[in-house]
Amino acid sequence: MSGKQRFNFIKRGKVREIFESENKDQLLIIATDRISAFDCILPTPIPQKGVMLTQISNYWFRLTKHIIDNHIVQEDPTNIDVDLDISDLPKRSVIVKKAEGLPIESIVRGYITGSGLKEYQKKGSICGIQLEKGLVESQKLKTPIFTPSTKAPVGQHDENISFDDVVKLIGPKLAEQVRDVSLKLYKFAANYAESVGIIIADTKFEFGILDGKLILIDELFTPDSSRFWPMDSYSPGKSQPSFDKQFVRDYLNGLNWDKTPPAPALPKDIVEKTQQKYAEAVRRLCKK
After folding, report:
1. Alpha-carbon 9 to chain mean position
2. Could you tell me if 84 and 154 lie in one domain?
């Protein structure tokens, strides 16, 4: 394998396979076609999902470098030696800088839905942020809010936490930086997405520290990490059609399943429709 950079397996995530360079300063991240929901990996893959996730994430990383640096070293790498037999390997792979990941997931919500809606209905707030009364499902918030969560191990559930909890975990200065950059990224992407007819209802970021500096890692504004709604059919007061895996969550919510492993298999029509929704998100968002 002369001339190729060797990467060794170190970790399997819900969707990605993670390999490490021999000098341990870079990672090879490979997006598989696995799909997860309710923090469980489903047994049924979505064909070409990993390729689409990588394509859209790389696009957003390039688009947001003026806001914050990210971990990308090389897209579509072909000079790699890795023990994994998987199709379209370069198209679903990136070589990245190895950073120390923060122990939180940075979530920004521009609309009230999902776990945020459930928390609001119980407490009138999300992650300690008091919201106005009378909000309905899918309603746009007056201003986007930073609603972080814990990072649970695979198979366990993330939990929403307050900003004060983030301060306790990573310190006040870094917590404020993460919050401010998260909101800036969301506002930039939400404006961009609206120009191609998509609402980004909410999204998740992950950050790391490299050489003492905060950088953006993992994935960015993908159908796995964000809720994408078509603007032309948006109507508050109910669940929205989507270009993301909410479609799969909705299907699973209709089953008699307790949201713990093992997860049920997906029927062929759900797989095909999910693949089409991901492809439409890529087609719309990555055309500029």
Report:
1. 22
2. no
- Same domain for 16 and 117: no
Residue 156's pLDDT band, with cuts at 50, 70 and 90, is low
Q: What is the pLDDT, as a whole number, of residue 83?
A: 92
The tokens 């839905």 sit on which residue? 113
Distance CA 144, CA 142 (A): 7
pLDDT tens readout for residues 173-217: 999 999 999 999 999 999 999 999 999 999 999 999 999 999 999
CATH number at 81 reads 3.30.200.20
Residue 24's domain comprises: 5-98
In angstroms, rounded to a whole number, what is the distance separating the alpha carbons of residues 92 and 206? Answer: 19
Kindly report, residue by residue over 19-42, the tens digit of the pLDDT: 999 999 999 999 999 999 988 999
CA distances from 268 to 33, 86, 170, 176, 286 (A): 15, 22, 44, 45, 27
Q: Are residues 42 and 149 in the same domain?
A: no
Determine the pLDDT at residue 39. 85
Q: Do 125 and 230 share a structural domain? A: yes
Q: Do 131 and 231 sit in the same domain of this protein?
A: yes
pTM value is 0.93
Same domain, 120 and 149: yes
Q: Give all strands (DSSP E) within the chain, no chain letters.
A: 5-12, 16-21, 26-31, 36-37, 40-41, 72-75, 80-81, 93-97, 100-101, 104-111, 125-126, 129-130, 140-146, 149-150, 198-210, 213-217, 226-230
* 215 in the same domain as 114: yes
- Residues 6+ positions from 123 with CB-CB distance below 8 Å: none
Identify whether 275 is part of a domain. Answer: no
For 106-169, give the DSSP string.
Answer: EEEEEE--HHHHHHHHHHSEETTEE--TT--TTPEEEEEEE--EE-PPTTS---B--HHHHHHH
In-domain check, residue 274: no
